[in-house]
Design a protein that fits this description.
With about 350 residues, the protein is α+β, with helices and mostly antiparallel strands. It has 2 domains: about 110 residues, no CATH class; about 220 residues, PPM-type phosphatase domain (Phosphatase 2c, domain 1, 4-Layer Sandwich). Helices cover about 45% and strands about 20% of the residues. The strands form 2 sheets. The protein has a 5-stranded antiparallel beta sheet, with helices on one face. Helix 2 packs antiparallel against helix 3.
Length: about 350
Amino acid sequence: MSTARSAGASPSLGRRFEDWLMRVMPPESRALGVLVILALAISLAIWKVPDWSPINTLIVPLVIGSLVLGPRQLPWFVVFVLLLLAVLVPQQPDITKRIAVTVLVVFTVGFIILLSSFRRSRLGVAGLRGESMLVDLRDRILKQGRIPDLPDTWLVESELRSAGGTAFAGDFVVAARHDDRLDVAVVDVSGKGEGAGTRALLLSGALGGLLRALPPEEFLVAANDFLLDQDWDEGFASAVHLSLDLDTGRYAVRSAGHPPAALRTAGSGRWSVLEAEGPVLGLIEGTAYDCVEGVMKPGDALLLYTDGMVETSGRDIMLGVDRMLGQAERLLRGQFEGGAARLIEALGSRNDDRALLLVHRR
């Protein structure tokens, strides 16, 4: 009976301990508490056994704190560690030139971390948590461009590459399927790399919602209105929108200041450009966007791309389009699967964002 009583009491003791711990040290303060204990332990070792514990070991809690502490806790912890350092220096048996340089290095590291904490206060989260938030946002951009499941008679591939290989880019793809209709937009936000990444994050979510909610003829008009409402300094973007009937192959292409789409006709084996015209998004109110219509027959292919695929300094963009179509004829001959990846690796500037969408009717 005593065993049963103790087994029943242990959960309540555990709960009481958890409640006490919550009152004494809330979860958001536990990392700070552990780091304070670590800094005190290192300081005690430096004081008692200086030969085995050099002063520069205080950099360890500083660096860990810069990764896990939030902007409200980090400045106070840095000041605490630097005060410990100021107390420990006079306790050293012999203050040599090497110790003086070490102290200067630790103070410099602490000052840099202190400055970074003030900048981080604009975001309001710890370093690792802030990075995870950005990675999550980047993954959401890629998810917006995921091609939905399609009938076996259609192959649709998209590829993205950012300037300099960074994790964020100003080019993105959004896609949506409405029963037997596929809508895809390839968008190029002004700027490149990280500079355009924040605007691309916002636009990808907004344009993805518009693509799902509106009929094809209203998508670019609504996107233009949305960009005008943002009132950004660099508040413009180019886009090309494809609306494709998966049953009949009938398509409509609309462009907003974007490089022309390219169509390969299986019968002739030749590529041709589809010159849909319209102003870029975010500059002119009350715009209308013309469309180019046609029918994709079995064996036909369509390319949508951003200017990073075809534009280089000192060369007309249409020369770049001609070069891309020549490479497409060579790289896609008889094998369209994986063609988007082959094309984007072979073409375009590594210093500019690139996006490519390949559509093939098998």
